[in-house]
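The protein record quoted in full:
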Amino acid sequence: MIYADKGSKIIVQNATGNQGSFHLPLMNEFARSVGGAGVVAGVTPGKGGREVSGVPVYDTVEEAVSLHDATVSVLFVPGSAAGDSIMEAAH
């Protein structure tokens, strides 16, 4: 199920990867078109301090959530990392 609305503040896990960096700007473009908050932060371990399409990237979900009050996480991670990424987002 998807639990998001226009007010949802989204983080993108693996924001600097091929899929994350491709979809993040599209997600923000759509969010702007409907008056939504969109993607407020990205997360890629070891790549904190970078930006993707003007969105700050952090090393951990905890850091991104604490700084941006994110309520939704979208994962663009390899299947082998999905379990750990889901657990990190759930905490």
